[in-house]
Amino acid sequence: MRAAPRAGLSAPARTVIAHAAYLTVVGLAFLLAPERVAWLLDVTGEPYLVRVIGLLTLCFAAYYAQFARHEDRPLIGASVPVRFCLAAAFVLLVMADLAPMPLLAFALVDVVGAAATALALRGRPTVGPLPAH
User: Fold this and answer.
1) Which of 49, 63, 84, 112 is most buried, by the most CB atoms less than 10 A from its CB?
2) CA-based angle 28:85:9, to the nearest 5?
3) Is 127 a domain residue?
4) Closest CA to 56 of 24, 33, 32
5) For a pLDDT cut of 90, what percent of the chain falls above it?
6) pLDDT in tens, 89-122
7) pLDDT at position 12
8) Would 33 be classed as within a structural domain?
9) One-letter-per-residue 3-state SS of 44-62
10) Rounded distance, CA 79 to CA 88, Å?
């Protein structure tokens, strides 16, 4: 059963809130379980570096949540090509043997999320209009 949409948020903003939630989970995993994350990603390195990545990811999650909550259409729209480019960069890193294959899972999540936001931006508002900036 589908959960009811948050009152007042447009469909594009809800996709970005979902992305912020995903980034929060990833950031917390990197921060709280760096050795496990490094093992899952088949990378070696200092746990503090994985924790730093987790903290940066949590910062991005906070930014995404804020511009979604404020229905900032330019930033919601800008998130689409940025997430597609990030996914492409992950794929290129794996293809060049500069990153492990599990990184492709992150690329897939970014592609799906960016596509959902792009489609939501093309549709008509379902809850409320996005303000013009």
Assistant:
1) 84
2) 60
3) no
4) 24
5) 78
6) 999 999 999 999 999 999 999 999 999 999 999 9
7) 96
8) yes
9) CCCHHHHHHHHHHHHHHHH
10) 14
Tokens, residue 126 = 């379902």
The dihedral built from the CA positions of residue 106, 110, 116 and 119, taken in this order, carries a sign that is: negative
Distance CA 7, CA 122 (A): 20
> Using 50, 70 and 90 to split pLDDT, how confident is the model at 86?
very high
pTM for the whole structure:
0.83
Query: Tokens at residue 78, please?
Result: 């800008």
Tokens of 49: 């570096």
Tokens 């730093």 locate to 52
Domain count for the chain, please give it.
1
* pLDDT confidence of residue 125: 52
Write out the residue range of the structural domain in which residue 32 sits: 11-121
Which residues 6+ apart lie within 8 Å of 87 measured at CB? 106, 107, 108, 110, 111, 114
Segment 64-91 mean pLDDT:
96
